[in-house]
Amino acid sequence: MSLSYIVSAKKSTVISKTEVGNFTDPKNLNLILNRGNRLDVQLLTPEGLKSVCEIPVYGRITNLQLFRPKNAETDYLIVLTEKLQMAVLAYENSKIVTKAAGNIADRVGRLTDYGTIITVHKSGLIAVRLYDGTLKLVEWEKHSDLKHFNVRFDSINVIDVKFMETKDEIYRMAYISEDNQGRHLRVVDLGMNDKEFRAFSSQENISNDASFIIPVPQPIGGVIVLGMDTILYHPDDRRNPVSCPVSNNTSFTAYSKVDVEGNRYLLSDNKGRLLMLLLNVDDSIREMRVEHLGLTSTADTVKYLDNAVAFIGSRLGDSQLIRLLDSPNPDGSFVEILETYVNIGPIRDMIHVETEGQTQLITVSGAHKDGSLRVVRNGVGIDESNNADCPGVENIFVLRYKSELDNYVIASTDFQTHCIKVVEDDLTAGGLLDFNENLPTIFAGCLFKNAELVVQVTKNGVQLMKEGKTSVFWRPESQELITKAAANVLHGQIVIAAKDELYYLRCLEDGDSLEIQEISKRVMSDEISCVDISNEKDDGSKEANFVVVTLWNSFKLESLTITDLVTRMEAFLPTKVVARSVIATYIDGINYLLVALGDGVLLYYTHDLQNAQLGEVKRTSVGTRPPSMRRIWTNRRQHVFVCSDRPVIVFSHNRKLVFSNVNLKLVNAICSINSSHFRDSLVLADKTSIIFGTIDDIQKIHVRTYPMGESVRRIAHQKSTGTYAVLSTREDVGGVVSTSASTTAVCKSGYEKKAQDESSAPAVSEISSLMILDQHTFKVQHTYFFEEREVSISVISGQLGQDPKFYYIVGTSIINPEETESKQGKLIVFQVDPEDRSKLRFISQKEIRGTPYSINILNGKLLVAINSAVRMFEWDPDTGLRHECASFNNITALSVKVMGDQILVADLMRSMKLLTYRSMEGTLDEVAKESNCMWMAASDFITAEKVIGAELQHNLFVCEVDKTRAAADDSRYPLEAIGFFYLGEMVNVMRRCSLVTPPDDSLIQVSQPIMFGTVDGSIGLVVQIDEKWKKLLLNVEKAIADSIKNCLQIDHSTYRQFSMKKRVEPATGFVDGDLIESILDIERSAALQILSRVPASGDGIPTDPAEILKIIEDLSRIH
């Protein structure tokens, strides 16, 4: 039985909770971000936010709260998880210290529907609203378990509760309660002796949507209550309250105190508006007013930092660091966005697409005005800004001749050289001094800081040129042709390879003459295949002090001192394939030697320069043709670019090399360029042209955003027409011009809304639409608007029956307010004109009885989950869709997946079942069913008889058809659960795909990859690993879990155990890849020490810690 290896390809990006305070140091201000199962501690600096540390948490974090204990110099942090594990954390000596921890769950009690709330008294007493009708009070002492007890509210439903700031040690609290008459504000004093509340004051029937209580600091005191139409101030001395109106339907989402006195507060609402609440204070609050500052992402949390800088944390859009302006900018906003933090959550749908040789995921993300499409790649993209036709270029060099900026591009083919002058964005052919354009150029550059000397290396020799002076020429005394060259241009150093001869040259300017000095020469034991020069930190501003060469027939790698070309280190390459490129570089504090072989394999070693030794060789595939390597600079950092038919960029993450794919099919040559027009850019050559462009931020997973400005629901791709179909919903307000994507289409069709009577109040309605997007530009080509009360639900692209045409099929539901479940819907067939993508043809329509939650295609027939049934439809080009057969016995069929003739149905409440389509009989028969009650969120096939599901309480489980047990009378087999795992996030979508091709040289092989997207914006990967590795991986998981203690002070097995309201199962059938791969982030010596505790796991399974570490590194390369 195989093992499911689960790992994060991209970790959670949603930020729903934040805290601000002096956590790491009394003098430093920290912003702490909740990122699902980890805490991100940031430091506020003049340059912006700087990461201090990331704290893994064994649980889904629901609440954070900073507070300052008595006699403490820094703030402590309270963390509470979904499973009600609580910890009090401090930061001491650059480490996280757990002051107290424990589980605060009760055996009985109903968890509140209004969410968990934490409030802390200045004495350090912690109050938590967990269960209906009660408040839990938590007392803590350092290095001990938490003690807790309950105090009963007068009301069952409590919306918000906060400790009030008082002048003495009174435990005074304010809370909003709700009953049949409305919402009310209660102020009570807590008696710690009798553990009861005593009424202090109250205010009945406040705003029906009052949701937040803001304690006002002393000496003012009291609380502010935020409602949809009114903001209320309630004093704590029984004086008259003060209120101010707000615009209708302002649903507040977050607030933050701006100044210590509590005179100003930042407020955010569900429309993304940022507001300032200003208090007019005398001895008490006399007046309040609200000012509109501008628009931001829809905020779940707002935190004012310092110096008019604030942080907007968002669940529906990107989080932002903003500055508040004294005067409005040209668009009237008082908000300036300083930095954006990408959030791809919540992921509502996701598809896997291959375009131009690049594998990518397209996610449907966000909601409302923050709705967007996100292109997720394992690698980086290059955005083209200019190009010029120039076929056959094999080498490119950039020169900054007599300039601070680059102004020449030298493009060399196999037969000649092109000198291209760069003036702004204009590229013109033009000679440069005595440059030889009749031969291919092996190297070219401008020497020294003044860049007045130009050097060109061709097969015939080395030419040194300067304006007004006689050029000088050097060639090997043996007259051998030059094959390779490497240089340090700032110091005039050049190393030349001519067959088996190696030369070290210095270029000089002596008065009125130029000179090329031959410093040293050496005849190698074999012909030289490639050469590079470098120094300890691969710093081009300092002189190179060593040379690296590889040899042809002996397959040898040698490092030599540059001055005398004496060998310091030599090693035989583990191959019989000739090396074609070599680079000695320094990345993230480590020296590396990279060797590219003729078969597309890249070898890489750590390089100990002091002891002249190489570390263990590792390898990766970078294509199928001979690659070449060049150093490039982006954002003032140096990386290595591998040119091939599968180009990659080499960079470091956590001191480990990462090979990131580039969104290009072929790169022959590349060079960095920084000209007056092409700032911090790249110039590269493919088969036919020279391309100028900028590179995305270099990271393992790259995300590109295409804002939609409305809620996007589903997406499908049609390769034949090069389009995407996107289902969306936007709010239409009468008289207001919308700027959302669906309204910007080249062509529009479908339902036309009637003009509204100008005398009536603006009507608000929801408009559903189908958008057709160009797959390259993501521009909306056509929008089809559905009728009023018709909501688009599902979409798929494919061929139906024997019809060769490709169609988009959309499922819609007719919503009637008086119905609890839709009883009408449609299946609509569209066709995109392959010649003109702006034309969308309405082909056919089939009315159905219910909501089409999911659509799939099985053997050319349409399979649709409609309410409680799964129905099959046949297609006829003349008559349209015809119902063929159905399967019932569901509560609500949420999704249908297909593998061969097998159908996987995920039910709202009844877990999963397998159907098979019998074409001869024309029936859908149930073959297996999981008998437990599971509220499903997503599912997919692993194999035809093994499936994976995600349920609403953030768990994953795997089921397999158990054919060892007799089938029931109706020929059904049990679908037996064989794997359980607590993920801690809700999965919305699963797809059988992968962003990365598994490395060929990996010792451990994986299969059946499934990627999933979550509400929290994470993308995960589940792969199957052969059973022979099961014991090893579980032993490794246990060894790491036993060695790395978590801040909650609970076991890893407790964290990952499958947990539902009335069911708990130990984590089985899964191995936690995030935990296993976390060992790669610690020092190698410490990692090896941990792995030395792993017991033997069977014959033929590695026991050496170094070999086990290599297996973990191989696993980290599958995502």
TrEMBL record:
Domain of life: Eukaryota
GO molecular function: nucleic acid binding
GO CC term (a single one): nucleus
Isomerase keyword on record: no
Main location as per UniProt: nucleus
Domain RSE1/DDB1/CPSF1 C-terminal: 768-1081
Sequence ranges assigned to domain RSE1/DDB1/CPSF1 second beta-propeller in this UniProt record: 387-695
Keywords, ordered alphabetically: Nucleus
All residue ranges annotated as the RSE1/DDB1/CPSF1 first beta-propeller domain in the record: 19-328
Nucleus listed as a keyword: yes
InterPro entries noted in UniProt: Beta-prop_RSE1/DDB1/CPSF1_1st, Beta-prop_RSE1/DDB1/CPSF1_2nd, RSE1/DDB1/CFT1, RSE1/DDB1/CPSF1_C, WD40/YVTN_repeat-like_dom_sf
Protein name: DNA damage-binding protein 1
Species the sequence originates in: Caenorhabditis angaria
Lineage: Eukaryota, Metazoa, Ecdysozoa, Nematoda, Chromadorea
